[in-house]
TrEMBL record:
It comes from Trapa natans. Belongs to the RLP family. It is a single-pass type I membrane protein. It is found in: Cell membrane. Pfam families: LRR_4. The keyword Membrane applies. Keywords: Cell membrane, Glycoprotein, Leucine-rich repeat, Membrane, Receptor, Repeat, Transmembrane, Transmembrane helix. PANTHER family: LEUCINE-RICH REPEAT-CONTAINING N-TERMINAL PLANT-TYPE DOMAIN-CONTAINING PROTEIN, RECEPTOR-LIKE PROTEIN 12 ISOFORM X1. This is Uncharacterized protein. GO terms for cellular component: plasma membrane.
Amino acid sequence: MRNLESLDLSVNQLSGSIPQSLSQLSFLSYLNLSFNHLSGRIPGPQLSTFKGDSYSGNNGLCGTPLS
């Protein structure tokens, strides 16, 4: 799964924090976790490179690119 390039988990009722392991997906070029119930800090430098739209609708999230 390390070569995963695209991940869309939007509108899935996901809750809790974003797993640190997602930040190890070095080939990931598209990520959409919007409109779930995620909370906590966005992990790792890799996941902070995506636009804020990737995380919109998760009021409990914080960190770059949201801050």
